[in-house]
Amino acid sequence: MQxxxxxxxxxxxxxxxxxxxxxxxRWSPVAFSDEMVEAEKIRTLLEAARWxxxxxxxxxxxxxIATKDNPxxxxxLLSCLAEGNxxxxxxxxxxMLSIAKLYFERNGAENRHAFxxxxxxxxxxxxxxTAEGLFIHQMAGFDVDKARKIYDIPDGYAPVAAMxxxxxxxxxxxxxxxxxxxxxxxxxxxxxxxxxxxxxNQVSPIL
Length: 207
Ligand SMILES: Cc1cc2nc3c(=O)[nH]c(=O)nc-3n(C[C@H](O)[C@H](O)[C@H](O)COP(=O)(O)O)c2cc1C
What we know:
Layout: E1 2-4, E2 7-9, H1 21-25, H2 39-50, E3 61-67, H3 71-80, H4 83-89, E4 94-101, H5 114-131, E5 135-139, H6 144-151, E6 157-166, H7 176-183
Antiparallel strand pairs: 1-2, 3-4, 4-6, 5-6
Bound molecules: flavin mononucleotide (FMN).
Flavin mononucleotide binds at residues 27-28, 85, 138-141, 161, 186.
């Protein structure tokens, strides 16, 4: 375990520049404890999502939540996940699905930033989770059509990402492959790869 500003993390990011300890400490585990997340904490995470910025303050996010307290609902959401994700996400006590409202309430026009804003809300939720000693692992690997059918998601809305939420668990019961993944070093592209000035692909002198 590594410690940074009172935050403990198994996989702190080794950053090239200073960032907030909560951002360093967040990561996506596959080993979840079966300990239920307190309802008040789940509400806190949703509140963190609620206060994200969004285009025209449309707040185009929705979240469907299933906890193990309701095994039928939990199984329903779990069944939407890709097999490779089910393998570890089944251990988490809470699953979520984020959904974007694709058209503006204000004028019915297409909201080109709906996914962006759902991502921003999810990121806030994820950082709040870190502050609560919790972990969120987001997933693109799920069956969008199945989710649409199970939850009766209307036209004009699109499932965005699934999420597993919980406390960190013991990795020894996981397959060897998953255990390797759990302890693999985290890495990122350097700023030079994606920060430009002047024109495309011209590395910004600010770096
Ligand atoms: C939108 C999104 C979709 C993802 N989809 C999956 C997925 O289907 N399965 C999975 O195991 N991890 C998935 N991840 C987790 C990423 O692999 C992970 O965030 C990335 O490797 C960086 O690792 P870190 O979050 O620990 O820093 C996804 C993450 C995001 C944000």
